[in-house]
Amino acid sequence: xxxRSGVTVTFWADTDVIHLLIAGVRLKSxxxxxxxxxxAALLRQRGRPAGEPPLPPAPPGEAxxxxxxxxxxxxxxxxxxxxxxxxxxxxxxxxIRIDGKTLNFFDLDTRQLLRIRPNPLTxxxxxxxxxxxxxxxPPQPTAGPVQVQRRASNSGVVMVVGQKxxxxxxxxxxxxxxxxxxxxxxxxxxxxTRLVRRTTDQPVRNLKASRPRKxxxxx
Length: 219
Fold this sequence. Notes:
The protein is mainly beta. It folds into 3 domains: 7-44, no CATH class; 64-134, CATH 2.40.50; 146-197. Helices cover 6% and strands 38% of the residues. It contains 2 helices and 16 strands. It has helices at residues 36-44, 123-127; strands spanning 10-13, 17-22, 25-31, 64-69, 75-78, 81-84, 93-99, 102-106, 113-118, 133-134, 146-151, 157-160, 163-166, 175-180, 184-189, 192-197. The strands form 5 sheets. It has a 5-stranded antiparallel sheet with strand order 9-8-7-4-10, with no helix packed on it. A 4-stranded antiparallel sheet has the order 11-14-15-16, with no helix packed on it. A 3-stranded antiparallel sheet has the order 1-2-3, with no helix packed on it. Strand 5 and strand 6 (81-84) form a beta hairpin. Residues 212-219 have low confidence and may be disordered.
């Protein structure tokens, strides 16, 4: 903005978040792209230790949020606890809203609810979390179906959310697209879409069809 031309802007940065401040007042916060090595380099380039973050701490008992990257196996570290989020979220950077007895994992751009897990942290542990900030509004679940792909077996059966569906041998080995909702499975086949009542409450763990197994060549 031209109104702030010539004004000195201070950057408060760690590996989770970057805050922009003018005269000690926070203007905005963005996700950090910096590593520990980047921060060390900034210190060598006339940077200085930042001190406490400019966001006010959440009152005791209030919900807080942190940003974390989920491991390939679907786990995330919160203080001294390793929490299973979901394998399907492996490698993603997500927000975690810590609210009483639950952890709400959500997309940082849309605040779409991704997973809900029990909260193993005590209030004292929550207060010590790195990068914690007062929580925004509760994340909301997606309103539409989850689309997945599955490869039919040699007998024409697909498995999705723990439920087996027989499509027939004519579909053996084919990859089909399935729209999964809380109540039904809509399976798009060559001969039309089949609607099947959902009988499980398991979450979707994989979006793509599994690769066919390779058969070893004869010696």
